[in-house]
Design brief:
CATH topology of the largest domain: Serine Threonine Protein Phosphatase 5, Tetratricopeptide repeat
Distance between the termini: 43 Å
Number of domains: 2
Order of helices and strands: HHHHHHHHHH
Number of strands: 0
Number of helices: 10
Structural class: mainly alpha
């Protein structure tokens, strides 16, 4: 491959990566991939991501772009491998968020929470990170007995409330918080907002919910 072809390949891969990242950051409700035209776009650009990794194996962004594309296509195990390589090259909150999102898609909420906890440590004022923490905590609660689940719902309420304080217009966080509060009300629990220690409680690695 000529030098200018390599540059063009990486440029295309990075452009596609930005498109995928914008899509994942959007507030749209998830759709069935078979009905989503973006999936065709991701599939078409996957070879560019794969070529970028071949040409520039020591650049973390190459692996990040590939990981995002693989996750979008439902190839979660491969996505985790690509995120792992990116983390080896350049640990970052973006890698933690990406890994956590893959674990959410796989229903492995305890592992997702560990990733989002790490991201929250690096980006404490990022509303999306706290929203994702809330989702993971609620997912853990969904998969446990009512007494243990109540504690996780309360922590989820705290994380989602923090997301809304940081971004009052975060529609997904508002919807998730409403669901968590309804679950707490159904169980007769007080929806007291936990303090900072509860919001950043250690991940429950052994519990996995339904996602």
């Amino acid at each position: 491959m000529r030098w200018y072809e390599a540059i063009l390949t990486v440029a295309i891969a990075m452009w596609a990566y930005d498109r995928i990242r914008e899509r994942l950051a959007s507030r749209r409700a998830p759709k069935d991939p078979s009905e989503d035209p973006e999936v065709s776009f991701v599939r078409d650009t996957l070879p560019a991501h794969e070529q970028a990794v071949i040409e520039y194996p020591d650049i973390a962004d190459s692996h990040l772009g590939l990981a995002q594309a693989l996750d979008e296509l439902g190839r979660h195990d491969e996505a985790l491998e690509a995120f792992g390589r990116a983390a080896e090259l350049e640990p970052s909150a973006e890698v933690d968020i990406g890994r956590g999102t893959v674990y959410l898609h796989m229903g492995r909420n305890g592992e997702a929470l560990k990733c989002f906890d790490a991201a929250a440590g690096l980006r404490p004022d990022d509303a999306d990170v706290h929203y994702l923490r809330g989702r993971a905590l609620a997912g853990i609660a969904d998969g446990t007995d009512p007494e243990e689940g109540r504690g996780h719902y309360e922590m989820a309420s705290g994380a989602l409330g923090r997301a809304l304080r940081l971004d009052p217009g975060h529609a997904d966080a508002a919807a998730a918080l409403d669901r968590v509060r309804r679950r707490l009300a159904a169980e007769g629990a007080e929806d007291a907002e936990p303090g900072p220690g509860a919001e950043l409680a250690p991940a429950e690695g052994g519990a996995a919910g339904k996602g």
